[in-house]
Amino acid sequence: MMKKVIKIMSLSLSIFVLLLSLTGCGEVQKAEKTVSGMFDAFKILDFETAKTYVDMDELDLSDDKESLTGNAEMFMKNLFDKLNYKIISSKKIDNQTVMVKTEITAIDMKPVMGEFFTNAMQFAFSNAFTPEEQQLSDEEMDKKMEELFIQSVSKSDLATVTNTVDIKVVEVEKTWKAAVDETFTDALFGGLMTVAEDMEKSFNQNSN
């Protein structure tokens, strides 16, 4: 009799553990689907779909005419040309939070920005020494800078860089979305934020 009770208890415990495991798997699957959906949408420039997986405002991916290039779609098309990802593992933190470890491969923006900055400085220097009536207006200069940037970022032989990032995926009102932080954003943009910070530090040191 006692053996039968113990057997029933063990079976009940096994079923309970299995149910907990299935519940956790469901949340992990939803989080991983969010990450996959987000990257797949980025790769085809489907930002409307991407909005269902991540807050686009936090990523600064809007058609803002005051943006870096003035042509956000062209900028993103070139930037995400070699974007790729691989989900490594996932860890459930609680019922509303899952950390999805993801390998993100993107165009390495360090050499791209280095070339762009060199070309931009050369052009600006040349423009400054042309007769005043032949110098480009601010609007024309902005357009030229855009052209130089697109030229640097659209080459077919650009190197890529791979970073492993823990993407926090959170359930809010029954919707799972990827949370944005600096590490994730920097990896997504191929180190663009790091390059910008390094350039700012360099300018500050040279000006002192």
Largest sheet: 4 strands, antiparallel
Return the string of H and E elements.
Answer: HHHHEEHHEEHH
Number of helices: 8
Strand order of the largest sheet: 1-2-3-4
The N- to C-terminal Cα distance equals 86 Å
* Helix percent band: 55-70%
Overall mean confidence score, pLDDT: 81
What is the fold's blueprint, element by element?
Blueprint: H1 2-43, H2 47-50, H3 56-59, H4 72-79, E1 84-94, E2 97-107, H5 109-128, H6 138-153, E3 160-172, E4 175-178, H7 182-188, H8 192-207
Antiparallel strand pairs: 1-2, 2-3, 3-4
Helix pairs in contact: 5-6
Q: What features would you describe in this structure?
A:
- The chain has 8 helices and 4 strands; from the N terminus they run H-H-H-H-E-E-H-H-E-E-H-H.
- With 208 residues, the protein is α+β, with helices and mostly antiparallel strands.
- Helix 5 runs antiparallel to helix 6.
- The N and C termini lie far apart (86 Å).
